[in-house]
Amino acid sequence: MKKFMAAHNDLGMLGEEKSVEYLQSKGYVIKHRNWHSGKYEIDIVAESDKYLVIVEVKTRKSGTLLSPVESVNKTKIRNLVYAANAYIRRFNVTKQTRFDIISMTIDQTGNVDSLEHYEDAFLPYVNM
Question: What domains are defined for the chain?
Fold first, then answer.
């Protein structure tokens, strides 16, 4: 029996795949995709020369009113920080950590309309 996913899940998976391709073209090494710690998830864990890069991918259909990056709220940031802390402890990471957001829109044929890579998009809150 084949399991069907909701269209937004397919769009999200496509956005993550396009994001991985983009990051690799920029020289990043992809360490993990969809890494989980309990209920917390990191879409992409990558490395650059200097940083461990925690990447949140936000994908929308072209023509959507809300920009994908606008959906990254305080709760999402807090959850990413929790997941990143767990990742750093689990793998004994010594590099500095940076939080990036990749925001993209995809047209009806599955092509990327726009892709914005926000490096160092936010700093973790001190009092979470």
Answer: 7-118 (3.40.1350.10)
